Amino acid sequence: xxxxxxxxxxxxxxxxxxxxxxxxxxxxxxxxxxxxxxxxxxxxxxxxxxxxxxxxxxxxxxxxxxxxxxxxxxxxxxxxxxxxxxxxxxxxxxxxxxxxxxxxxxxxxxxxxxxxxxxxxxxxxxxxxxxxxxxxxxxxxxxxxxxxxxxxxxxxxxxxxxxxxxxxxxxxxxxxxxxxxxxxxxxxxxxxxxxxxxxxxxxxxxxxxxxxxxxxxxxxxxxxxxxxxxxxxxxxxxxxxxxxxxxxxxxxxxxxxxxxxxxxxxxxxxxxxxxxxxxxxxxxxxxxxxxxxxxxxxxxxxxxxxxxxxxxxxxxxxxxxxxxxxxxxxxxxxxxxxxxxxxxxxxxxxxxxxxxxxxxxxxxxxxxxxxxxxxxxxxxxxxxxxxxxxxxxxxxxxxxxxxxxxxxxxxxxxxxxxxxxxxxxxxxxxxxxxxxxxxxxxxxxxxxxxxxxxxxxxxxxxxxxxxxxxxxxxxxxxxxxxxxxxxxxxxxxxxxxxxxxxxxxxxxxxxxxxxxxxxxxxxxxxxxxxxxxxxxxxxxxxxxxxxxxxxxxxxxxxxxxxxxxxxxxxxxxxxxxxxxxxxxxxxxxxxxxxxxx
Length: 597
Hints:
The protein is an alpha/beta fold.
């Protein structure tokens, strides 16, 4: 039968007569049979109280006395003299449960690799050994997260006495830094954990005592040493390690800052926030502005981008064949390398935005209409929230403004958030100047250049099929309204809805969303005073949903040229006004729009 591996329990102590007996007794009471207990007296000067207690245990432990050098030096002496294959630290004021070592060695026995560092949660006890709390990392994070080597260190989850460490880890990593008085443990764990597997055990196996005499309360310079330790972590962690722990460097820095917010380490917290802000500034945003004439408003829009607090941007200004002089816009672009002017034939805003997307070099793309403006913090705030939520598609609430710049009502469209597909089909409140997309989200997609209105909604529907929408209920954009804008122009709204309908029923996947499409038809009918709300019961009973899709497909196949869209749209509108909604739907079901209505 193979001998069980030996575990060395090392107890450093300095003037610890109040609690050391309880610690030693818990070490000697371990149910795991092959242990040694080493107690290192780090030059106690309490009139022999600590020494007398230690010597009273006789041969049941190995007693080592040395001059005072601090906790790190006592631990290092114990490591040098230990004879076991595994190291287990026990502070003189803490307590092991009897099965601490046995449970950990049992777990290791089931692992293929034995070069694993183990740690766990712990109980908190007071001076009288009464329970005052529990620290359970698995109540905050998944086991998978807790097993990422550096993660428990940079989230302050490691209690040194919960560890079980293979002895050879010290040979490859080194010992505790004896120049550090209170952070020697975390400094070593940071170096060591990067090179080994780390596993979290959910069992509570130790009791950690909270009392006024702890070194963190009595040793001068503790706060400064902790700040320097955390700053060194932030400077040393690699890109791969940050991404493994939190997904992106920004998330790592900002979540580390949030963790440090609950500590007294203000200097380290501010440094983490500064690093996070620097990561955001590395993200380039391409702002696409299509324009046709309206030079004054276009200049106002461009200047609102130049005033952004997020400074890593480019402005791609697409001239959609303006007939007015654009000299001032061209001069502005020539004076600032972040602005790029491009002229195209008059093909409409969809074509202009698509050209802007093709020219964009940013990580993200934002859209701004030439008559609208951004608030100064728009890009920074929206980017921050997108990075924080790892979002590919976001939009915000916005403020309406009149032609003369006066403020109007706030539209809380940013309340629409999450998995909004397919509900976006029936109602899309997303305003284009509030949208920011990652380059990935729009890859292979574009605005429908055959539509003068509603082309943006069609794109948002298409993207929302693949990505959740991050809605931000903050007013970050001003959207100008007037008689000529779609927000107030009923005719443009009608055409937009008709375009959306033709896009949806001609789409290979979206045509099956009958309820949502029916609600969109109802919205169109409401412009003509047609009352009521569509439901499944409004469909002709003799026509199944499968038959509906078939008839719609037949209709589209006969009318799939954009040159015929508006003719068919007029038929829909005439039928709605003359015959009502349900009759019009029946005609769609029966494929009657292939001929005159």
